[in-house]
Design brief:
Two copies of one chain form a homodimer. By secondary structure, chain A is of the alpha+beta class. In chain A, 26% of the residues lie in helices and 39% in strands. Chain A has four helices and eight strands, in the order αββββαββαββα. The A-B interface holds A 17-19, 21-26, 28-34, 36, 63-67, 69, 71-73, 77-79, 81, 83, 85, 87, 109, 111-112, 115, 134 and B 17-19, 21-26, 28-34, 36, 63-67, 69, 71-73, 77-79, 81, 83, 85, 87-88, 109, 111-112, 115, 134.
């Protein structure tokens, strides 16, 4: 795995996938949910409904995990799918930054445009504090957050 | 969404997917990881490496979340992918049940066969205590655990 290969593989994964799996802390139990995502200057951008359980969970605990994974297909072994994991703190995008984050989100998830007129949806960002890349079976490495930011 | 349609959709999702997204509680932060999975009598069956962070996490907190999602494709909107979420307690499969769980796991994930000779891998089961199904945008319902068990 050369220096450039894994960096290119991360960029390709982000360019070609549109959903992520978010871990939030419920009352007693961590919970996984699926969220369309985008990336803006190293932040993960999510647009969440206030009706969904994850939105309630992050009111009491802003620490979250997130994974983006190569979609399974008939030809890929489920053991070897390249994926990237993050931990970080989630927060609503500040009012002054709404426009640039919304633009970045809709560039990656154009289908979400009508949801921006729904009053219960809020744009969030995850400020990433740790990143790990698993390029396949046994190919894992931590990615410094500065390196992650330089890739996106 | 008729009574039978969503049940058939759950069975079809389980039959056609092989990876799940597990939420475990780290020291401060929930974390998402990808795990190949199978289902046996309503339990989710996972085969985890002791070297992986999720295995360390479940030593201190057995409460986990898990999601199984329709893979994204160029033709499916990322907003509407059918998915099923679980919470439950994870535990090693008891010695007396190893053989039936292993058989169920390898039937669904045949590529994992060589990993059963690796000493650091352990077969786990999640005893499911809550199930929710999201059949698409706005199509969510809780599934009683007895109903879930009757489907698999």
């Amino acid at each position: 795995m050369s220096e450039n290969t894994w960096k290119n593989d991360i960029q390709s994964l982000i360019a070609n996938t549109h959903i992520a799996f978010l871990s939030t802390m419920g009352e007693h139990t961590p919970e996984t949910s699926m969220c369309p995502y985008a990336v803006y200057k190293g932040d993960i951008v999510l647009h969440l409904s206030g009706l969904a359980k994850h939105s309630k969970n992050i009111q009491s605990n802003q620490n979250v995990g997130l994974m983006i994974c190569t979609p399974e297909t008939a030809t890929n072994s489920p053991l070897a799918l390249a994926r990237i994991g993050f931990t970080g703190k989630i927060e609503p995008v500040p009012q002054a930054k709404q426009s640039v984050y919304q633009q970045a989100y809709l560039k990656h998830i154009p289908d979400a445009e009508p949801l921006f007129s729904f009053p219960d949806f809020t744009l969030y960002r995850i400020k990433v504090n740790a990143v790990h890349w698993i390029g396949g079976f046994g190919k894992a490495r931590k990615v410094p957050t500065a390196t992650w930011k330089s890739l996106c």
